[in-house]
Known about the structure:
Rossmann fold; 2 domains; seven-stranded mixed beta sheet; three-stranded parallel beta sheet; 12 helices; 17% strand; globular; disordered N terminus; binds beta-D-glucopyranose
Amino acid sequence: MNKRFLVVAGIISLAMIFLAGCGGDDGAAGEAGVSSDIVVGVSLPTQREERWVRDRDTMIAEAEREGIDLRVAVADADVAQQAAQVENLLAQGVQVLILAPHDANAAASLVEEAAADGVPVISYDRLILSDMVDVYLSFDNERVGELQGEYITNLVPSGNYIVMSGAPTDNNATLFKRGAMKYIQPLADSGDITIVTERAVDNWLPENALNIVENALTSNNNEVDAILAPNDGTAGGAIQALSAQGLAGSVPVTGQDAELAGVRRIVQGTQSMTIFKDTRELGTAAIQAAITLAQGGSVETNNVVEGVPSLLLTPHVITADNIDMLVDSGYLTREEIEGN
Ligand code: BGC
């Protein structure tokens, strides 16, 4: 055997070990060469919001810890891309599918395809609107909305409100809004609050929120007293629009996700609150549930949402007064929050 052959053979075998270890679209669990009997597929809608990056990283780390073969695909907030990725995961023979849908309705057909292959589906964070979902793992999303609505109406019990909700394709957006309106609607009915603008933010895009708030400010001569923003991304867009009118910090704005940028705005005083959902807990729970389902067990749940057995974790309000909760739990560091 000549030297050149040995080098080439070495490269090929290293590449094969690497592929075996990765075994996925987009990174996976296990050290090189770890093989496992349990193969789990994950399909996430996006990595745009920081939280989804954490969901992904947590699942990969937990799968690695458990020594299971995890195959992760991320769709770019695109229905067709998510469908193609899920079909690809099923073709790879995953035994369980963890699916966070970009579109709650469209994903129902993916659940049917999985069921046809005998693959149980965990609806992750966002509910897939299908009665064939095996289990739903999320936070108490209606409670998220209640916390936002309660907070903003306590702070601003009367005046002009901009009410924004998340992407209409996301069932969570419906739940967040339902929760928040439990507090806002009665005050609107009594005439204390005037909702000057009520709009959904397509695709959860901050620039869409910016446009909504910009237009609302223009058509109300800047007379806006409070803004319900469903998450930190849309809060960022709203605050940019306020800032352009010199109003950042004088109009309370809600948020959600405890994103670094959102928490920094809370420290600076331009955003009033956020909601902390420990996505590390959710990601870990999803991998554990997938292992349980792969072994034919049943997942422990504490709720039922739209007829689907669900495990709902608890969301927490974060304001300037309790940012320590994020630091103490290791979600963010003091340096990150206070850094420039
Ligand atoms: C999630 C939020 C996130 C939003 C946009 C929702 O379904 O629950 O945490 O901010 O989607 O990605």
